[in-house]
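Note to self: the last two entries modelled the partners one at a time, which told us nothing about the interface. This time every component goes in together.
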Amino acid sequence: MSENIENKTFCYKHPERETSLRCNRCEQLICTQCAVLTPTGYRCKDCVRGQQKVFNTAQVQDYIFGIAIAALLGYLGAILVRFVGFFVFFVSPAIGVGIAEAVRWVVRRRRAKSLYQSVTAAAVIGALFNSLPALLGLLFGSFDLFGLLWSGIYIAFMAGSLYMRLSGIQIRR
Ligand SMILES: [Zn+2]
Ligand SMILES: [Zn+2]
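The predicted structure of the combined assembly is written out below.
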């Protein structure tokens, strides 16, 4: 931050560029080239970079526990939706939200996009595991198309709401 006697202010990285724009987080003076427009206003590149680091706070055990919980709940959810009939359309997104909340609790709200993707994939695999008998049934001629269709709806709705719920935290911050 450099200010001279004529009250002119200059960019903290480019002392030759006059500017009155300030980063709204650290209040450094920034020129238009150094300013990054964020949802909360103009910020300097250092602050933006610092924030991106905060977005990726997940640790190795978060992946292990997150994936285990999501796979288990995805599997249990698949059993549950067999009994709800048409309500699969309402129950599946709710299960997705429930899994997301369980995962958030387990990983103590640490975050990383790759964590969300792994967790969603794990929930889908858990759910598919439940459809395994029906899928194997196809090979042996017992054709449970209705059951498979229902599982498909469940997996799509559950995974969609799970991923949106998890990654939603990131957007709101
Ligand atoms: Zn800043
Ligand atoms: Zn600059």
